[in-house]
Amino acid sequence: MRAVGAALRSREAAVALVLVLVVAGTTVLQPGFLLSAGGWRDLLLTPSLVAVLAVGQAIVVVTRNVDLSVGSVLGLCAYLTGTLFAAAPDLPVVLVVAAAVAAGAVLGLVNGVVVAFARVPALVVTLGTLYAYRGLVLTWAGSDRIDASDMPHAFLDLGVRQVLGVPVLAIVAVLVLAVAAHYLHTSRAGRQLYAIGSDPDAAVLYGLPVRRRILTAFVACGALAGLAGVMFAARYGTVSSGAGTGLELTVVGAVVVGGVAIFGGSGTVLGAATGAVLLVTINRALPVVGVPDFWQRAVVGVLIITAIVLDRVLADRRARALARARDVRNPQEVAR
Amino acid sequence: MTTRSTMSTPVLRLEGVRKAFGPVVALRSGTIVVEPGSIHALVGENGAGKSTLVKVVAGVHRRDGGTFELGGVPADFRTTAEAKAAGVAVIYQEPTLFGDLPVMENLFLGSEPLDRLRRIDRRAMRAHAHELFGRLGVDIDPDRPAAGLSIADQQLVEIAKAISLDAGLLIMDEPTAALSGVEVERLFAVARGLRDEGRGVVFISHRFDEVFGLCDTITVMRDGAHVSTDPVAATSVDEVVTRMVGREVTDLFPKVPSTPGDVVLEVRGLERAGTFHGVSFDVRAGEIVGLAGLVGAGRSEIARAVFGVDRYDAGTVRVLGRPLRPGDPAAAVDAGMALVPEDRRLQGLVPQSTVAQNMTAVVRRRISRLGLLSTARENARAAEWTGRLEVRTAALDMLAATMSGGNQQKVVLAKWLATGPRLLIVDEPTRGIDVATKAEVHRLLSGLAAEGLAVLMISSELPEVLGMADRVLVVREGRITAELDRADATPERVMRAATVGAAS
Amino acid sequence: LTACGGAADDAGGGDGVTVTMLPKNLGNPYFETSTSGAEEAAGELGLALEEVGPETSTPDSQVPFINTSAQQGVAALVVSANDPRAIGDALDEARAAGTKVVTFDSDTDPEFRDIFVNQATAEGIASKQLELISEQIGGSGEIAILSASANATNQNAWIELMEAQLASDYPDIELVEIAYGDDDDQASFDKTAALLQAHPDLKGIVSPTTVGVAAAARYVSTSEFKGKVAVTGLGTPNQMREYVEDGTVTAFALWNPGDLGYLAAYAASALVDGTITGAPGETFEAGRLGEFTVGEDGVVLLGDPFVFDASNIGDFDF
Amino acid sequence: MTTVPAHGSPLWRRALLTREAATIALLVVVWSVATASVRGFDGPLTITYLILDITPVLLVALPMTAIVVTGEIDLSVASVVGLSSVLFGLLHQAGVPLPAAVAGAAVAGALCGVVNGVLVAYLGLPSLAVTIGTLALFRGLAVGLLGTAAVTDFPRNWTQAARATLGGTPFPSVTVLLVAAVAVFAVLLHGTAFGRNVFDMGRSKEAARFSGVATRRTLLVLFVLSGFVSALAGVYYTLRYGSARGDNATGLELQVIAAVLLGGVSIFGGRGAVHGVVAGVLMIGVLSSALRLEGVTVNLINIVIGVLLVLSVVSPRVVAAIRARRPARPPSTSLPAASPSVQ
Ligand SMILES: Nc1ncnc2c1ncn2[C@@H]1O[C@H](COP(=O)(O)OP(=O)(O)OP(=O)(O)O)[C@@H](O)[C@H]1O
Ligand SMILES: Nc1ncnc2c1ncn2[C@@H]1O[C@H](COP(=O)(O)OP(=O)(O)OP(=O)(O)O)[C@@H](O)[C@H]1O
Ligand SMILES: [Mg+2]
Ligand SMILES: [Mg+2]
């Protein structure tokens, strides 16, 4: 009972509700948005990539850090995927995916090491690596690009194939989400990530392995950005050196909209992923309902701001309720 | 049955342990030997180095020198995790709860019960939590977030957390400061249980009734060094106090009598949900009003609300008859109010600014010329006050962080006195200050009052309140429960008003 | 590195002549091909050719590269403009420093450059694309345009002409939306999806940009719209081969961007050695492409757009 | 009476052993190397273009410095540049005289600052999240307002004024504006009570509040300043590049923040100096200019800036760690000074 009640009042549910409303509203105006084979597929497929990034980002944000380099990591790993296929077309797809994910993990590790050991704020470090990693792709790729013809059909097929009406990439995103949610919710290490974000000083005092956990979070985020790179290559079939540019802000925005506190300690990956789906879907819905696509960013901005203002309002309400509860718990035979 | 020899191996042995923070030597020569099956009191004035000693044992700080053995084995912890693994459980003076996590996760973080699939077993965790709280006789919902717990409940969760570790050595740094009588009794029962199981317990408290009622050995510290260790039975409160202070207590409070003048501060019906209720009082010119109560009673909250750093839900504050805009410290300053806050490092000073910048922080605009503020002008103004209050620092452009606590407190006082206030609120003005400086501060306050300043003094040290105040207000759980004149203010009366059911 | 400064002074000389190639952005296969064409010409002419360019196709990001060329005093700058006016002042300064300016692919206002090497007349490009789409959808129905960025000079010019010709010559075809994919694969791909969603009766998409048409074709080829919605526009054979082969795309048009770059480099060289000044009626040799005449406003025309389809696409590799 | 000296160390130590001095020294080295070895770098146009290029970055970096010193951040600046550029263009298109259009853009920028400031200072929301939101919002408005168009028909005398040099010198006329802006911010931050309060807020917001500093109002003022100056940068940007477009200056915020941090401003707040930031901006400008002349494309420039940024924050930590390590760790079994008196 309590669980059901909590779930209904949760942030995740609120975001999901908005999402449902957006989809329903758009579908009324334009039935094809949901009720055509393509509409259904794109509804699930288009947000998958950002959702995977948002899951990774949420893991980092929960620890009171942030990873701005995910767009660049995605670009690098997407290009790596294409290059591997171009160089060795017979390579098993699994191997290439593993290589790209591993590459992402290594880039995340670099972020994590600097943040955890040099005690430099993640914002600065990942701003730096945002530049540096993008520079690496640009230097490596030059003006080359990977085209659909460079990659095997079996791989590109993953970008469009559906299983029981659900796109493969959406299944990947859901699996990632499930594993991450499970880890954060039910493992000791996962709970410690929240503790670290909730109060880093207390975490040290408590004796939590703060550095190791932060490292883990960045590696996970990097690896997921790497996976998103693979998904990018499979979905879009073309990879240029600019792949994923500017995605970091969308992802951080999605995480915030999904109810992950930017200063750590609270929020879930489910919320982050839902936030990502909402942002992407609104982007897709606007032109359908007749808002010129130029205004999309403004709507996203309003959404992000609304989300954080709402969070604050709710938090204040909760704090006041708790304060009142304290008064009730300590009824006082009023001062004589 | 364990053999005689292992029985006599001390659980904890510290000898001549030293710890300095930059120029501040917090612990000069910390020494304590805790036998198994005993409850060992550690007493000393504020700033004597008790918490620092605890933190060395807990692995928070690494000692600069001295011997540290645990169960007869040399120890040198780099992290609290190592100390925990070695069987040291600590309740820190400041609660260290993770506000975003539920209470039960706070209790078991890192050692949560797991199910067969190595997932956290929340059901088992909840049951354990209930069981622990049952032992302590408290009723806290294990599923609620730790944020928003009252200070007392936070302390109880800390206690439950430490007990759950099942450690060979339990250190409690002022665990009772915020607890009610019943809760204190329960805690003591638990502590005695642990002692009877043969574990070592270290108990830090400023309340001598507790120390003498619970402990079997007592170690006194002063100025970061060991003074004495005696069986409780072989000593007395007076003796301990004399050792703590290092001289006769009475000359600490050079109270100058003065006649109260007009009402300077008038507080009526101040109210803030969950914090304080119906607070009304006056402070007159030339008068020192003491605000007494247990830690967490809400005295600082009241002071902060009056000064405007916090908001309040209802009530009025008047200074010299004029209503004060709520929530606006700048207005309070303009009205002639000054607040020396309780936390020097966080509230009183900007440790990373220079001494001169700190001393002129509130009068910056006043000492600017044509809107411009030069370092030379700041230094001139600061030099004047370092002279008056005899502040000791290497140079005016040293960072405030490098000064000793007493001198930092003088800087805070100077920064406010420089504004020429009509009302001075001092919150724990002598916390963590050595005895000599303490007397200086008292003399200063007393002199200022004699010159007609209205002073509201919050202090958790009963002797200080009783020694300095013309009138004492006692606060309990956010309400003023007693108002006592200097003549009527006895320790018993104040304590009775401050605690519920503690004194029968 | 190429030798010493003062390249502008010995503009007539052979080996010391440096030409800078500044496409709209790097990493764009269309410009890659045009640059390799220019390189071929540079090899024949003994010019030192250097390609520089921004990541994104915006005018402000092109300006620093124009400035750098002025600083270096390169002999000629061959540029595809991201805005007809915005980079004008910078080009003026470069010309003041002695640099000859050739625009290709996308022009500036004529006052800012010496020569514009035009791939095809705008009218020709617009009508060719309409011809193709009309054929492919059977002369009637809804179509949409997927363009590059909203400010792309040449795309906007073509779109304007297409709108005019649609109104006058194709009364049964309705243009329902113009979307902008910013010459970005992902954006163009997602915009295609949005177009198909927003307009269930859409019968064709015209994308007058190589990135856009490839992305649109890729989306359609993997969707239920394959075979139902026609895709055409301006594309390169290598990018489009797959979709022509799988039947998504029947035919599309383009000039040879390699030839365009090749001609632009020859024009630059002719300007540098004084063969031409940009005045109408002047002529110059352009290697394997033969002789060209400078037209009105200093425009040199490459030729008519070429239509690629299943029958001929195998003959091209760019 | 104790007399306390004003300063603990001689002037040269205080001036030379600073983070800012290190940045300036590095700048001098980079500049010298570039002059000596990069073809064309010693030419007369270099200074001109360098200053033209850094103008928007430097302008925006000045209020950003103050904001970062308080421990906050403003990621929306580049979007304000874009939005004000668009408004400037639209007003011009609507026939508004240009000086009035400049004023209109500036007011709009200040309003953007009010939005940020109110959300951050008065609602107490984290500036990082707020300004990510307004980054999207302001950019969305900019792109939305101008749609497909770009306004490019600004009078030649205005666009050329934005680039013209001061008679005979290589310095563009905008240098005057820059010097004035730098001076104003340097005085504001380092020579007024307001500036001291800004530093105090960054070092301890709570202590500043307890000292009667109007922390909320101060933050609001800074965000409004940031919006206002960004708008001026937007007008300049529009004239320099001759086009008002919704996507103008995209990504500028990262360059600005990189420059500010390179210049020695701590991201934690509480420390930094205007001269350091000027050096940081120049450093990025000189590096970009020199590398571009070398034919190195944007790619490598990005790597260099990124790595430099990380190094600039990591190196002080490393130095501090080494310094802390120097007095050897105490032996774990030293003898106690006093003997315990266990009775
Ligand atoms: N991290 C620190 N940096 C600098 N000085 C410190 C630090 N921690 C403690 N000190 C100083 O060391 C001295 C001893 O502090 P400690 O907390 O050990 O005292 P205490 O005996 O526990 O006092 P109390 O009874 O008030 O808790 C104080 O002067 C304090 O200001
Ligand atoms: N439920 C709670 N959640 C968070 N903070 C709390 C809660 N209850 C009390 N506090 C904080 O605990 C502190 C205790 O209150 P306050 O400091 O006013 O008491 P005090 O009587 O002055 O005690 P002290 O001697 O410690 O200063 C306050 O800072 C108050 O904000
Ligand atoms: Mg203590
Ligand atoms: Mg207090």
UniProtKB/TrEMBL annotation, chain A:
Keywords assigned by UniProt, alphabetized? Cell inner membrane, Cell membrane, Membrane, Transmembrane, Transmembrane helix, Transport
Pfam families in the cross-refs: BPD_transp_2
Q: Where in the cell is it found?
A: Cell membrane
Q: Has keyword Transmembrane helix?
A: yes
Annotated TM spans: 13-36, 43-62, 68-87, 94-117, 123-142, 163-184, 214-237, 249-282
- GO molecular function terms here? transmembrane transporter activity
This entry carries the following GO cellular component terms, namely: plasma membrane
Listed name of the protein: Autoinducer 2 import system permease protein LsrC
Specify the taxonomic lineage.
Answer: Bacteria, Bacillati, Actinomycetota, Actinomycetes, Micrococcales
Automatic annotation (TrEMBL), chain B:
Its localization reads: Cell membrane
Q: Does the keyword Cell membrane apply?
A: yes
Membrane topology term reads: Peripheral membrane protein
Which residue intervals define the domain ABC transporter in the entry?
A: 12-248, 247-502
Tell me the keywords, alphabetical order: ATP-binding, Cell membrane, Membrane, Nucleotide-binding, Repeat, Sugar transport, Translocase, Transport
Query: Where is this chain primarily localised?
Result: membrane
Sample GO molecular function, one term? ATP hydrolysis activity
What Pfam families does its record include? ABC_tran
**Cellular component GO terms, alphabetical:** plasma membrane
| Name of the protein described by the UniProt record | Sugar ABC transporter ATP-binding protein
From TrEMBL, chain D:
Q: Which domain of life is it from?
A: Bacteria
InterPro entries linked: ABC_transp_permease
Coiled coil stretches, renumbered: none
Which keywords describe this protein according to UniProt?
A: Cell inner membrane, Cell membrane, Membrane, Transmembrane, Transmembrane helix, Transport
Give compartment(s).
Cell membrane
Pfam annotation, one family = BPD_transp_2
> Which CDD domains does the record cross-reference, listed alphabetically?
TM_PBP1_transp_AraH_like (cd06579)
Q: Where are the transmembrane segments?
A: 21-41, 47-68, 75-94, 100-123, 130-151, 171-199, 219-239, 251-269, 299-320
| Gene Ontology molecular function terms on file | transmembrane transporter activity
Classify the protein's membrane topology as the record does: Multi-pass membrane protein
- Kindly report the protein's main subcellular placement as a broad class: membrane
Q: Which GO terms describe its cellular component?
A: plasma membrane
Which PANTHER family does the record associate with it? ABC TRANSPORTER PERMEASE PROTEIN YPHD-RELATED-RELATED, AUTOINDUCER 2 IMPORT SYSTEM PERMEASE PROTEIN LSRD
Task: Write down what this protein is called.
Answer: Autoinducer 2 import system permease protein LsrD
